[in-house]
Amino acid sequence: MKAAVCRRYGPPATITIETLSDPQPGAGEVLIAVQAAGLTSGDARIRGAHAPAGMGPMIRLAFGLSGPRRPVLGREYAGRVVALGAGVTRYSPGDAVFGITDGMRMGAHAELVAVRADGLILPRPDSLNVPEAAAFFFGGLTAADFLLDQCALQPGERVLVVGGTGAVGSAAIQIARHHGAHVTALAGAGNLDLARELGADVALDYRTAPAKGPFDVILDMPGLMPDAAARLAPGGRLGLITADLATMLGAMLRPRRAGGRRLCANVVKETPQALARLVALHQAGAYRPLMGAQFPLADIAQAHAQADSGHKRGNLVIEMEPQL
Ligand SMILES: NC(=O)c1ccc[n+]([C@@H]2O[C@H](COP(=O)([O-])OP(=O)(O)OC[C@H]3O[C@@H](n4cnc5c(N)ncnc54)[C@H](OP(=O)(O)O)[C@@H]3O)[C@@H](O)[C@H]2O)c1
Fold it and tell me: How far is the CA of 242 from the centre of ligand 1 (A)?
């Protein structure tokens, strides 16, 4: 199979396309012919070993010291089942599926990937085309976890989404709006109309227009609003989607602050239930992934460069050559 391979951490050009031996499905696994895969800010962080302050050593310990031990990155995919490992009865060859691979195994930026049949995989609904399915989970799971679980958003609350048109922010605007919140989004000047189309009641340019608040819930996507906690109403919750190690530890060890305010920085739950809830939100009209640029596998380095920018629109998708 062809795969995008990252042998050493570095800039986008360190990714090369190689021919690797085809993976075989182990017991309880299905082999999937990947039709499209998401390329996320998380993939770009691993490739570049870029992490918020204090987290770099953790990336290297977890993924490999000078380069990823598992050199094929990528987690979210859409494709078709092509072979079954021993004991799999849940899927059949030809089934259209989508999901996310195990966080440490990755491997979705390839023509074939083997995943556990009882893991983070679902049949692809007709309401999502292949690129949308490949872009479905990363931003949506993060936004739903922070808004609904960690920040316990209630209908009628005032929400501020900082970075409203990237992968996570575009999902957060939609889900918060569907949940009956009044949504203010901060975005770059060229993305204000898009933020309103996604459902923001108010869209402001983060370079020129401060969002005064107070807000009941703030989700800070890029972690670039140091005074966010000061804009919380009493009882408000700040979701720290990106935080340096010290801030994250502080939030975990002492989440409760003055006035009943709370900092939320827990790890996003990746469970079959969380995936199913996101699909249910989609089917209720609450969420559809915002589609950004699409690239053939051969141009994956360009996609990494866009993801590195910190200003991409929605979700980037890598399209594989048709194999079936
Ligand atoms: N905690 C977790 O489990 C978790 C999960 C997923 C992602 N993340 C992190 O969350 C962050 C966002 O991920 P993503 O995939 O949504 O990234 P993305 O698609 O690159 O979007 C980044 C967003 O940040 C906005 N932005 C850039 N500079 C800004 C500033 N100075 N003030 C306000 N907004 C600004 C951009 O707006 P414009 O384009 O309009 O400039 C864009 O909307 C990344 O750092 C990622 O690593 C964490």
Answer: 8
Give the total number of structural domains in the chain.
2
pLDDT (tens digit per residue) in 267-279: 999 999 999 999 9
Instruction: Check pocket membership of 151 for ligand 1, CB cut-off 6 A.
Output: no
For a substitution probing ligand 1, which of 39, 224, 311 has the most ligand atoms within 8 Å of its CB? 311
Place of tokens 């499209």: 36
Residue 33 pLDDT more than 60?
yes
In this structure, are residues 9 and 71 in contact, taking their beta carbons and an 8 Å threshold? no
Predicted pLDDT of residue 323: 67
Do 142 and 132 reside in the same domain of the chain? no
In CATH, what number is assigned to the domain containing residue 232? 3.40.50.720
324 assigned to some structural domain: no
Q: Which atom of ligand 1 is nearest to 292's Cα? A: 19
Nearest-angstrom CA–CA distance, 144 and 216: 16
Residue 310 CA, ligand 1 centroid: distance in Å: 6
Q: What pTM was computed for the model?
A: 0.97
Mean pLDDT, residues 54-80: 95
pLDDT band at 150 (very low <50, low <70, confident <90, very high): very high
3-state helix, strand, coil in the chain (%, to 5): 30, 30, 40
Provide the residue range defining the domain that includes 148.
Answer: 138-264
Contact 205, 192 (CB under 8 A): yes
